[in-house]
Amino acid sequence: MVVGKIPPDPDFLRHGSSLQARIFYNNILMYVAFAVAQFIVIAIASQLLAITVIRTTRGMHSQAFGKVLHSPLSFFDTTPMRKILNRFSKDVNALDNILWMTLNDIFYIPLTVLASVILTLVYFPWLVVAILPMAGRYYFLSLYYSATSREIKRLDAILHSHLFAHFSEILTGMEILKAYGRAKHTILVNQDKLDLSNRPYYLFQVSSRWIAFRVNIFGSCLVLMRGCLWSALGSRSVQRLRDCF
Length: 245
Known about the structure:
It is a single chain. With 245 residues, this protein is mainly alpha-helical. Helices cover 90% and strands 0% of the residues. It contains seven helices and no strands. The chain is elongated.
């Protein structure tokens, strides 16, 4: 007795195709809705952050300037001029140009990473085997880089303070320098101090490339481990998702 294949039911195929089509379009609509919502939230948050940083910088500058104007003479006798100039130059520049980018990275990057990890773990829970070791490596790497970056920033602030103080002294004694013919020598000294003050910036860029290279290596290792785990265990997850639909 020969048993032939039972032909598929056309109604079942038609209803199954329509169900898959509805699921596909629903997923696309959800993706578009999330993208539009993300755009709106990021635009509003960036605007509020910019307004907050501008108001904060303006208030801190006004308060610092008022305190310096009303300070007694003993304050100027005990405080080097380079420290006062550094408060109104480099620190204000950091508040205007660096603070808002840092705050944006603090809020945006962790939320993006957390959302990506949660979404990935929902569809492929076995990835936690690769994420936990990498998270520990990221943590210790961030501690090492934070200590190095903090020291470089401190050196940068000190060298810029000396540069501003030297330039202020040049402006104060310009007539004496011209009278004794030391203007050219003073220009060379100022150029040497300018080159010296730029060295921490070079070190900061090198340290940034150092951390970026290692982060990219860890990310590539995570992608490789994810591919290996998916090849070994992913077929079961795919079959489980197909059974749900």
